[in-house]
Amino acid sequence: MEVIVVAHHNAPGCGPGTWRLVCPLDGVRPRPEDHDLAYWVFDQLPHCSISIYDADLRYRRSNRAMAPIVGLSDDAIRGLRIDEITTQPQTGALADGLRRAVESGEPCHLESFQRTGGQRRVHAWSVDFTPLQDPGGKVRGVALVAHDITEQHYARKRLALLNEAASRIGSTLDLAQTARELMEVTVPELADFASVDLLAALERDTELGEEALHGTVTLRRIAHRFAPGSSPQLKTVLDIGVADSYPEFTPPARALATGAGVLSNAEDAGFIQWMSADTVRAARIREQGYHSMMAVPLRARGATLGVAVFYRRSRPDRMERFGHDDLLLAEELTARAAVAIDNARRYTRERDTALSLQRSLLPQRMPEQSAVEVATRYLPADTQSGIGGDWFDVIPLSGARVALAVGDVVGHGIHASATMGRLRTAVRTLADVDLPPDELLTHLDDLVVRLSAETEADGGTAQHSSEIGATCCYAVYDPVSRTCTLASAGHPPPVVTPPGGTATALPISVGPPLGIGGLPFEATVVKLPEHSLLALYSDGLIQTRERDVEEGLELLCDILSEANTTLETTCDAVLGGLINGRPQDDVALLLARTQALDAGRVAVWNVASDPSAVAQTRKDTGKRLSAWGLTDLTDTTELIVSELVTNAIHYGAPPITLRLIQDRTLICEVADSSSTAPHLRRARVLDEGGRGLMLVAHLTQHWGTRHTPTGKTIWAEQNLVPGEQAG
Length: 727
Known about the structure:
Shape: elongated
Low-confidence stretches: 461-466, 683-689
CATH class of the largest domain: Alpha Beta
CATH topology of the largest domain: Phosphatase 2c, domain 1
Helix content: 25-40%
CATH architecture of the largest domain: 4-Layer Sandwich
Structural class: alpha+beta
Distance between the termini: 134 Å
Number of strands: 29
CATH superfamily of the largest domain: PPM-type phosphatase domain
Mean pLDDT: 86
Largest sheet: 6 strands, antiparallel
Strand order of the largest sheet: 10-9-8-13-12-11
Number of domains: 4
Radius of gyration: 43 Å
Number of helices: 18
């Protein structure tokens, strides 16, 4: 005896549970009305549209749900093929699905987009083609089963659009590019035209009060986009960068005032009033066929930045106006874009501040000096990297010499620019003391160590590390000896090009970067022929993500070897050959062509360590000034020479040397072997001495002392035109 049993296990939260056994009643057989029940299921399923075709793919019948989709009665289309019933764009794909199901005997699936009978909106359909087989397995027909998945389809599209926005909007810190990215995401997927306009008042004020958002507002266009395939004759009311005023009744002004998105169409009273007041805009909208719009405020971090406006026109695949779901999507997209736009706006403001600070800290014009001819360039880094701390300087020194410096502070932004300013000021101060390059870098290294300690004590932030790092190359060129003394703290070596020769990197000893502390720097002395070209630069010139330092240095040498034009033209050639577009890091470039002082403009005498030698030095000085045509300066210069030589004889140590240099100024130098520097002091009434340096300071434009490896040199400068000396 066979019994069919259906077993059910009822398991509670704990314990063994129970079993329930069920078996069908005996004698219950199929009834005739079961066939009717099956037909009623076929005919009355509310959300399942079914059509049946025979094996020849000719229409037989449909259920009630399919009738409004087809739009024709069964009797009107029975016996027709599907491509004879409808001619919509995807009819061919439906016919192919029916044929494959009949020929293969296997079900197949298709997602189709069709406009149902009498409706303007295109619907998304999930269509299954199921072969109908007799008991012998022969295909007798095929069922086309369609489910309307329009809402799910558009929900997926909205989600995909949000995902795309998350990955595409805000890829840079460029304000206009960020706005364009919002346009690219929304057009044509959401709208046929879109624009982003920012409040013009933000150009003056970083933050705006709520009162600025009410009434008539002025907006400036920063981006807009037409749907691809639009007529090239289509024109916008506003060009990029142009500002326009929007009265309080217009959708953009209402969106700004309320802080919420505004839906509008051609029948809305506010829209009609707007078009009546702005006939040019009304003509453009009619010309382009827009029937609805959305205005969505751009808000980020509690501040209103502007408004995004979206327009839609009728298209074969999208006839309906903007709806509430579209507005929610636009608000979500705009909210994401607003944060990115605000980031770009804040970054641009900080970058402009840093750039202004940096440019104000760099030399505004080159100082007058005769040692070198100079040309410089500074290029800030691209917007993504931010302004760095690269700098350069040209500092006149005593004895007709000149100091050339290029440095690079690690990091970007205002912090790096401020640190750069402090280091450049320190270099100028140390240069005024006339320290040799290696000693100057040692003092600069100590300063950076102290700055790092101060920053750490104040608490470094994630944006501004307590570690301050920098590099620097400092060179001193002497046009009399035609020598250049250089020292480097972690900085790329200078490149020198002799007249008519090949450019090469100078073989200097590169010390550690500034801020390491405790490590020595080494000076290198090189002889430079007159008209040699010396190039100092920051690493941003030669090193990029695509090019290492060695390759960039070789390319720089090649460019400088071929340069035989002016320094300005050479600067342009260097930047053009090494920088492609905006640099990835700051670039500082300093080109110096050396000059030499002719031997006839320099006079040197050895002075005996005897007070009687002073008279002879006065005579020698007078003769030399007469030969140079500077007789007007004879009396003053003889007095200065007398005081400086006397001071060296009394307080210095032999050998003593007197040197006169005719440059832009008349330079008088007295050197001796003592390292003791004189001090300017005010002599008392009864003092017999102490007035010499006071007299020198009164008669000269500048004076000072510099230490040398063998002692010291006291120098004084006079203007070549009498009467212009600083008193």
